[in-house]
Amino acid sequence: MSRHNMSRQKLLAVSGVVALLLLLTALWLSDRYRSGDGSHVGEPLLPDLAQRIDDLDRISIIGPGQKELVGLTRSEAGWTVSQRNGWPADVKRLREWLSKLAKASRLEAKTALASNYGQLGVADIDAEPAADSNSEGSTERSGTGVRVDIAAGERLDSLLIGQNNPNGSGSYVRIPGDAQSWLADTDLAVELDPSRWLARALLSIPESDLVSVRIERASGTLTAFERSGDSTESGWVLTSAPKGEVGNETALLSAAGFLDGLRLDDVEQIEPPDEAPDMVAEFVRRDGLRATVSFWPDQISIADPAIMPWAGFTFEFDEARATAFHDQEYQRDLRAIERRKSRTQAPADAADDGGSESEPADGASTEGASADSESTGAPGAGEGGSDAPPADASANAAEELPESVADRVARSRAEVEALREKTRGWQFRLPAFKVGNLRRDPGDFTSDRPG
Known about the structure:
Largest sheet: 9 strands, antiparallel
Radius of gyration: 38 Å
Strand order of the largest sheet: 4-3-2-1-6-7-8-9-5
Number of strands: 21
Structural class: alpha+beta
């Protein structure tokens, strides 16, 4: 074989090896992009998180530009929302999301190429925010998801959460610092609006406990109604109605129920504006609590009628009304106890009277009766028997006196103080349907139906 032919064969062999290597490399890269390293399929995303949930003290949801969108912090007082100046967080919602995260596992390996992270939304959080990510709770992130930092003391776990799987359930995720991305086996989308993490229960005063309601508007119009057991089916009389008109029962009942199960939509730690409120509603409870709600529209609520104006609360306590009310309640409870005692005492008295007036039958001797009494241990028999208490004495002794008037008044006073403490220095956005029941036109509270 000539030297020329040998060189040609060597060249072909080398070319073949190079081509094979290129093919294998392409296949490896393609497979790595498509499914990555599948050796950890089925493993939890954050091992032992379930065992550490009660030890967590800080959760941060970080968006583009390293901006903290939501910060949840735990102290001795419980979990609070940093973006709302420490208002309590919805612990139930938080624990439900943490429980779901703790149970999440790696369903399928995805890309390990940084250039492809953007397609799944698991790119690293950039130091500079995107132009469209400045608004609170924004999810516009140009291929970048959010990073969730979960801290327990010195330990910090982080997870990048990207898009949800468009072809089924689950979310794309990646551990910061790991090249490999994954499809989780459950939807891990996290709420980015801090107001959604707030504990929304504000207060609850049932309509049935109120005795009067007043609604004053900046226009000068007044709607006032009072409790009256002899009036309408709802028990309310419209005292501000023009002569000849009666109250609209539905409108009055809805307005009086404003404080019942009241929840907040949002909250800010701000002082009341200097200008006069747009509307003031006053609610008086039977035990002396007086709740006043003042509404101030802002630019946002003016521009969007669906957004309610800010509302502030003040609470006062009428000691005289409280004492009068609780004294009536105390006397009512005393009478109820006396009635129970009478029902218990009557059968015992009847039995005692029947036994003392009857004569021994068929010439039976009193000695026999005494013997029977002694053998059965009846009152008056045996040594010391005359000192035994009546049969109903233990029941009477066990009968508790009702709570004192002073204690009842103190309890009402403490409730008022607790409401003051909870709402002082805060303004609230309240549900539209609740505020709407107060913002009716004055004419909506009247009816041409005879009372």
